[in-house]
Amino acid sequence: MNDEQIQHPINVLQWGLSAMGKSSDCESLKLKKKISIDGSTYLIRFICHEPAKYETIRTFFGIDNKTFTDSITSSPLAGGKKAEVSKSGSKFWKSNCSRFLVKSIPKHEVDCLYTLTSAYISHIKANPHTLLTRFLGSFTVHFKQTVEHFIIMNNICSSEDKIDYTFDLKGTTEARMVKAKKFHSSHVGKDLNFKNEFICLSSKDAESLRKTIRADSRFLYDQGVLDYSFLLIIVQKSEDKNNNEEVNNNSNGDNKKK
Predict the structure, then answer these.
(1) Residue 160 carries which DSSP code?
(2) What is the DSSP pairing of strand 135-143 with strand 40-49?
């Protein structure tokens, strides 16, 4: 990445990832570089927090370093906007393969992640089907007079199928209604929007889901993290939509005949 391409802290993140090479056992990996923008010289800094631990996490989830780095650095990232479900003001970028998300976070969240990384690794190894966010890297960058913190995580919305409905569920009813005339992919519903809906699971899958949620909730409780949401995304597969359209067409035809 040349100097002209570094116009934003997210570009410093991309530069640092492409330049850092193999992860080390050090507590943090630091890089710096002087760049020239419009005739002015700036010092940019890149810090990768706990690189070895996050490489352990990525390896556990089957993500090799080259795939991870190339996905973030090979071309400009899409996004940079605040997500509807985010109250913190965090911004999100999507990797080129849509497999990963980059999220801007405040300093206190960087510190929180630092305190629980080892426990998180133990938890995912003991609970390989965990539904917790897959934290894949934690970073701090300095650009001009700005200091930004980022995490990279898995993107559960990476399916090529169009999302029909999304619900952010907390298991409570207080202030858990989003007012909208008609829900679709551009809205994120809450608990009361999902009140009259249900999901059919086999007894085996239902029990497995309960065990996973209990284990994840217990882990967060033990770490003193209390804000837990269950993000439910509903995607109607193309073949299902075609079948529904066929049923509707046949029903309309029957009604006309009657």
Answers:
(1) S
(2) antiparallel
Angle at 28 between CA 23 and CA 29, to 5 degrees: 55
Residue 256 or residue 178, greater confidence: 178
Token pair recorded at residue 181: 């005339």
d(CA 13, CA 142): 9
> Residue 82 and residue 31: Cα distance in Å, rounded?
28
DSSP, res 162: P
- Would you place residue 248 in the very low, low, confident or very high pLDDT band (cuts 50, 70, 90)? very low
Nearest by Cα to 118 from 240, 37, 223, 245: 223
pTM for the model stands at 0.80
Kindly state the helix (H) or strand (E) to which residue 73 belongs, with its residue range: helix 65-73
CA distances from 209 to 131, 218, 222 (A): 9, 14, 20
The token pair that represents 243 in the structure block: 């079948």
**Contacts of 233 by beta carbon, 8 Å cutoff, 6+ apart:** 156, 157, 163, 165, 166, 167
pLDDT digits (tens, 9 = 90+) for 38-59: 788 889 999 999 999 999 999 9
Question: Rounded to 5 degrees, what are φ and ψ at 130?
Answer: -50, 145
The encoded tokens of residue 142 equal 């300095």
Whether the CB-CB separation of 198 and 234 falls below 8 Å is answered with no
**Phi and psi (nearest 5°) for 48?**
-105, 115
Model confidence band, residue 86 (pLDDT cutoffs 50, 70, 90) = low
Let me know: does 44 contact 15? Beta carbons within 8 Å: yes
Ramachandran area for residue 218 (φ above 0: left; ψ -120 to 50: alpha; else beta): alpha
Q: Are 63 and 70 in contact (CB under 8 A)?
A: no
